[in-house]
Amino acid sequence: MSAVASNQLVLGFEHRPALGEESFLIADSNRDAVAWIDRWPDWPGRILAVHGPPGAGKTHLSHVWQRRCDAQRLDAGQLDQTFLETWPGKGTALVIENGDQGVDETVLFHVINLVREDKGYLLLTGREAPARWPVDLPDLGSRLAAMTAVQLGPPDDQLIAAVLTKQFQDRQLRVPGDVVAYLVARMERSFAAIGQTVAALDTLSLAERRAITVPLARRVLEASQSELEWGDS
């Protein structure tokens, strides 16, 4: 898995993030999770949970696995009785995202059982490890507590720089190294912030028809900080 270089000029097209295996960047913070994805289909209990903060790479990594095994993809909020009634059957592979965000506990419990009974596979994602999900159904709680779970940790400077560079390349933006270094030293330490910062720089650069420079980056970071302070007031 590695980033694909691009030196193309900015074009005014809709941005679509690269979510393929070749564009996933491996670092210490995600190495264990990648190793578990690579270990498939040898997953204990045929189920794996990947957890971490918003923007940590859960969706990207789950897309990598989804393509490998042609899995069906659902948000936890889509799990309902109708889904159980239309269960695909033997060998079903599923990605269920945001498992700790308002899931129907009874349906999730049955899905876990069906995956095992039908020799399928399930990849769950969430912010917290499944053992810490706030569930009321005791049987589901025991299933979650016993589930194999791996964490995506916070990024270090090297990974933040690499992800910034990749996201600029995804948008076909040519950005000097001094801009990336400036952002790494000053921006919020999260993948969610990287996406927001790159999008803001892209928008401002296009609106003003200016190259992305350190002064432009400074304006974006200052505006972001002002919004945070306003939200806290």
Your description of this structure?
The protein has 233 residues and is α/β, with parallel strands linked by helices. It has two domains: 30-151, Rossmann fold; 154-232, Orthogonal Bundle (Helicase, Ruva Protein, domain 3). It is built from nine helices and five strands. The chain has a five-stranded parallel beta sheet, sandwiched between helices. α3 links the parallel β2 and β3 (93-97). α6 (157-170) packs across α7 (177-186) and α8 packs across α9 (214-232). The chain is elongated. The protein starts with 30 loop residues before the first helix and ends with a helix. Residues 1-18 have low confidence and may be disordered.
Give a brief outline of the structure.
The chain is of the alpha/beta class. It has nine helices and five strands; from the N terminus they run H-E-H-E-H-E-H-E-H-E-H-H-H-H.
Mean pLDDT: 86
Number of helices: 9
Physical arrangement of strands within the biggest beta sheet: 2-3-4-1-5
CATH topology name of the largest domain: Rossmann fold
CATH architecture of the largest domain: 3-Layer(aba) Sandwich
Ends: how far apart? 43 Å
Low-confidence stretches: 1-18
Strand content: 5-15%
CATH homologous superfamily caption of the largest domain: P-loop containing nucleotide triphosphate hydrolases
